[in-house]
Design goal:
231 residues, alpha/beta, Rossmann fold, 2 domains
Length: 231
Amino acid sequence: MSAEASKTRRIRGPGFEATYLQGRVIDIGCGPDPVVPHAEPFDMAHGDAQVIASLRPHGHYDAVCSSHCLEHMRDVPAALAQWWLLVREGGYLVLVVPDEDLYEQGGWPSLFNPDHKATFRMNSPTTWSPVSYDIAQLVRSLPGAELVSCERHDAGYDHALQLRSISPLQRQLFALSQFCHVRLRRWGISPGHPLARGCRWLFRCLNTPVDQTDGAALAQIQVVVRRGLRP
């Protein structure tokens, strides 16, 4: 999660932090890499994010942020409602979640992260996933929510490598490719070595799934929501 947060910061415009991440900020699921240095971290050591509203004051934060955490919640709508309670009037909720097509690539359960409990799409009436949420629709259902932006981040993503579905054989190939890469590293063989390049070429020819976010690529959706003022 922290690696994705760092990659996201690099593509945000210079005014993003000044507009949305000022004042009291809490970052849910940030690990050692909070969204801004002054953010209050909230991770597993601090409690269960599923029930965070019982652990932190309501309406206390100018910004509630979370990057690649919501998909790990056992009840996504209930967790989101809890996070929303922490946002003050006029404050912001900033969410980053995996894009189900770019990240999961039509495979469920998640091949690349077995702890994922949900997938997310953006403004789409249909989905291949049995556990999908339209993130824009989900945040619009929050009381007093004003959707500021909803955008897909795919910087560095090679769409030619994206699969539309993942078969049982492809799952086995992915596991084998991971085993081979680990072995090569243990043997001190660098990624640029001909043997490592040949290994990658072979698995690509076999249409093996690739987790591009393991490198520099992004495969996610970012949502910014403002909590409107009460009349």
